[in-house]
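FOLDING PROBLEM:
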Amino acid sequence: MASGNIAVLNALDTARTQWYHITAIVIAGMGFFTDAYDLFCISTVSKLLGRLYYYNPATNKPGKLPHTINNFVVGVALVGTITGQLVFGWLGDKLGRKKVYGVTLILMVICAICSGLSFGYSAKSVITTLCFFRFWLGFGIGGDYPLSATIMSEYANKKTRGAFIAAVFAMQGVGIIFAGLVSMALSSIFLSNYEGPNFQTNHVLSTEPEADYVWRIVLMLGALPALLTYYWRMKMPETGRYTAIIEGNARQAAIDMGRVLDIEIQEDHDKLSQFKASNNYPLISREFFQRHGLHLIGTMSTWFLLDIAFYSQNLTQKDIFPTMGLTNKDVNVSALREMFETSRAMFVVALLGTFPGYWFTVYFIESMGRFYIQLIGFFMMSVFMLIMGIKYDYLKNEEHKWIFAALYGLTFFFANFGPNSTTFVLPAELFPTRLRSTCHALSAASGKAGAMIGAFVVQSYTLDGDIKKIKHTMIFLAFTNMLGFCCTFLVTETKGRSLEEISGEDGGQNETQMTNKQRVTLPEASWEG
């Protein structure tokens, strides 16, 4: 039974690209905007927190967060994200995407605001409060991963589905840019009014008291974009696929989709009940493993390996920049000046390396396909990281710092024009409707487990700026990327086909049995809706 025979699915697959699709990208992308904003900001904020709350006169050095506390401040949101992904991913399949979609946004707004508050004045109370609310902020962000990806995949037509899902994820890039601008602008405004001497001139006054407001404002502003899109998110109807296939209500699916998209849908009650009956198997079953087992292993392993490298790079760049000469040593600047310089360096790398990669994926994903973009991305990341690791002594010298910066930026570019985008897209397409949100959640949680290795293990090797440790770290990350390259062969190409055809829900060929030859000969899909 072909999915094209079911009117509601066929209408969604063949609908032209409309304004509502673009609106949905922005609404669904706000969780990723907040995710990237928070991840970017905490890297600059953590240095400021160290100078404000952990200065020890006996060391003759600026204050610095102890390794364990630094790892906890950065990593606690990742723990929350894993938990949120699994909980909301499961709820998205059980209760419906729409019913739990607003909860994630409310959590993000409340916890982003509360992240800037402190219940007390001591270092312990400030860090405890921050970590508590960052966990729940991560919980909300985590829920957005499976829900946003699933909603966008189920709304989109089959010719532009990959580009639309990638565009939702590309809101991360927009979040990074805004985080850089906000951090730079706020630190610059405070510097113009309250700049203190550098640390060598005056150990105490080099940490401006007003800096305690800056990090709080930066974190609190992360609530604004999520708050602005809450109303529109609540107005989104349940996806037509969930209403029709899982709830078996073709009439309601037709009404919902007809309200937001310019399409006509006939009811197909008999075909839908037959369709639903033939795909009624649970996640933990022999049938699921035979149909989708390799794909789930593939999406989980590639996302896990990718995030070890991707989050290591993101979280450790603040420690690598001084070694590269892109920022001044901490003893030569005040606390706010250090925040400004770190934000500026991260912003430049993001603008020239990270940001374009997302949109290259959006543009090319329907012509090149997910499979090849992921392979190329993993391979190029591995090559650039290996070069940086082997030649680190040479590249860190003053005269070669721009070569290092270019290589560093290129690894970010190929992460985003590569596996960082495709590992998000593929789990939203490979699995059946009744388990799509859960399988995406498992894949994303696996990725965040890799990110935790980056935050708790890899980052500890770079905190002291030890050249030998940074070299070994880069070579290790090159190796994890090559493993990701190999694991990519467990997944298959999905471009240009309906979700039911890919997952085998339409009763067609089992996707797991597709050969590499079939991957290559899939029909070209154009950008035209």
Residues 513-529 have pLDDT under 50 and may be disordered. The CA atoms of residues 318 and 342 lie 6 Å apart.
